[in-house]
Amino acid sequence: MVTAAFHRATPTEPAKCVRILIVGGGYVGLYTALRLQRKLKAELAGGAAEIVVVSPDPYMTYQPFLPEAAAGAISPRHVVVPLRRVLDGCRVVVGEVTAIDHAKRTATLGTLATEESGRTEQIPYDELVLAPGSVSRTLPIPGLADHGIGFKTLEEAIGLRNHVIEQMDIASSTRDPAIRDAALTFVFVGGGFAGVEALGELEDMARYATRYYHNVVPEDMKWILVEASDRILPEVGAEMGRYTVTELRRRNIDVRLETRLESCVDRVAVLSDGARFPTRTVVWTAGVKPHPVLAATDLPLNGRGRLKCTPELSVDGVTHAWAAGDAAAVPDVTAEEPGKETAPNAQHAVRQARVLGDNIVRSLRDQPLETYAHKYVGSVASLGLHKGVAHVYGRKLKGYPAWFMHRTYHLSRVPTFNRKARVLAEWTLAGLFKREIVSLGSLEHPRAEFELAAGGKPSRDPKGSS
């Protein structure tokens, strides 16, 4: 704990500026910075404090809206919150922390200019907030690195939307049954929120899009969900999980439980039950793992690579270091069984960020810290337009009521009134007009046309749909 960190200047000792370094611009990073710039408004104005936010992107992505962005229900720019605009009291640095020496209170930073100069930067700090989030957890499956598509970022979500529509274009323009079958087969691996919601929204979009194709009907498409365990969406409970399987199968989606992806070499998805599916689309949503920067610190980690934290959200056994969200193993003080940790989800991350911000201020002012305690209230999931499941406060909902609750809950949670108003306006307009079904895949290769005109060979990503 910092004792009397904010002290008045004397003739012999000038006031010290306390620098708070926040690593990550996701849920925890954004909400902690918002809390701090509000609580430390006077100190920031007087130069007694400085907040530095380091994020690989200049925006925060509201990930629960990624499936709807992929389906075209929400514009991509409304799924993100610009950090510099919202955090006007902070210094935002677009870059990535690659190592942390907490004993010396320094962080090694690589920025966009690092590739040009070849030099990294060192940022000293007084208080450290580690909130880098998580990255996709992949397995050494043959062909996955070459042909797999992730669903963790906005770029991946929009790229997947373009890819699905392009596959429908390919199927519509060929008479080769093998090419057509592979183009219209979509394999999703992972039965958690990301996989089920992405599959549900994209299948719903593609089904709608077939009305504009003269030779593609919904029955031509194969949608396959592969899950290694015996259930999907465990967060909504066993009953709602079984309902989700029934609902998906009613839409002719092939749900395969207790099944694993063993290979996707040569664009053929081979499953552990012996099934083989020629496909141009393998979407990997089978879990996440802690960000690699955690291993490049001198801070204590648990067996799963997450930071050991106290119920006050400080790093266990270390002073001046804090963490929350996916990167932190926070004890769940509301659980009956000992040793249980809070789930690494958005519901906890947003609430932890508020307590984290308050505790940093309390620490700097030498005040008692607050314990983070929040009982999990439940979960909601969308399965496409007007379809969903929910298990909230012990109540189970399905169909339209669950879908409406999903939208209402996330609209209330997306940061800033600006984004709330824009998303609500888009949903309102979507109810009055037809869906926009168009692929903008060329945006991923903006120089291809010019390179071709200049006599060169247009560069296209070999992993893409070309």
Automatic annotation (TrEMBL):
InterPro entries listed in its UniProt record: FAD/NAD-bd_sf (IPR036188), FAD/NAD-binding_dom (IPR023753), NDH-2 (IPR045024)
Enzyme class name: oxidoreductase
Transmembrane segments: none
Catalytic activity, EC: 1.6.5.-
SUPFAM superfamilies, alphabetized: FAD/NAD(P)-binding domain (SSF51905)
Domain FAD/NAD(P)-binding: from-to ranges: 19-353
Molecular-function GO term, any one: oxidoreductase activity
Keywords: FAD, Flavoprotein, NAD, Oxidoreductase
Family to which this protein belongs: Belongs to the NADH dehydrogenase family.
PANTHER family: NADH DEHYDROGENASE, NADH DEHYDROGENASE-LIKE PROTEIN RV1812C
The protein's name in its UniProt record: NAD(P)/FAD-dependent oxidoreductase
